[in-house]
Amino acid sequence: MKVETSYAGFCIYCGGKASSDEHFISRWLGGVAYIKKASCVICQKIINDDIENPLSRGLFWSARKFLGLKSTSDSKEPLPLILINSGKEEEVLVPLDCNPGFLTMPALPEPSIFLHTTPMLRTGEITWQFITSIFDQEKHDKFKKLYPSDYVATRELGIVSFMRLLAKMAHGYAVHSGIPFRPLLRDFILYGDRAKGEFFVGGLPGFGPRSDHSMVYAADWISINGVEYLEIQFQLFPLAGMPVYRIIVGEALDFIDYDIFKTIWTIKEEATEEATRKEGYLNRMYFEWRDTEDQSLNVT
Ligand SMILES: [Zn+2]
Hints:
There is one protein chain. By secondary structure, the chain is α+β, with helices and mostly antiparallel strands. It has one domain. It has 9 helices and 15 strands. The strands form 4 sheets. Strands 9, 10, 11, 12, 13, 14 and 15 form a 7-stranded antiparallel beta sheet that branches. It has a 3-stranded mixed beta sheet with strand order 1-3-2. It has a 3-stranded antiparallel beta sheet with strand order 5-4-8, with no helix packed on it. The radius of gyration is 20 Å and the shape is globular. The chain starts with a strand and ends with a strand. The C terminus is likely disordered. Bound molecules: zinc ion.
């Protein structure tokens, strides 16, 4: 098994002393690449308690179980779903062999940095759009007979946790790639200030393109009000045509700032070398992987 790793040597969230490796794409979403020595005990606990555990056991539970995406603490627990009949809600526990693989994700509005100059809550301004896919139609037909309802919902969506997960994955991906940038998302990942989240984390409307990749990532510089920002775009579950997300992870550093980069992000030397060749480097920044037998990561 070939797994792509990088090395940080400090906590990529708080800058403190790192004690463990960081799987920036959660293992329960099929992530294999990781950054060695990149998170501290405290940040790891915040991320697990506030982000990873609620989502892996909530929003993503049905799809994960259906696709066989595992994590170390997984059990065969039944699937908790909420059946809605004439407005009445009833929680049921569905045995995993009746799970048709429900996957619901929000299609986020664009990050508000494109519209506003400072972070502000857009309550009332946003209409959330939810995209649902079902992996197994035949099982779904059986499910509907066993559990008749007008609608089926997963447990609480946790929109801020979801945006923090996107921020965490994009931030980690950018660090892992050795791109020089001044990070903007560390506070949001750790503390979840929603206005800040909406400012930097968003997406494209509607379904995303379908492909047979496990996940698709792309990175590019984007100019907003005369400032160069690093934008990471990615799509989880492109297999099901799920939405594409856009995350502004940081501001560009120029050559004058290069020393700052070295003190903020002491990524291994060969990566920082390459990172000075901004354009050439970014061309290599698109990577993707498939669920091949050897789980290898194909860098293109
Ligand atoms: Zn930390």
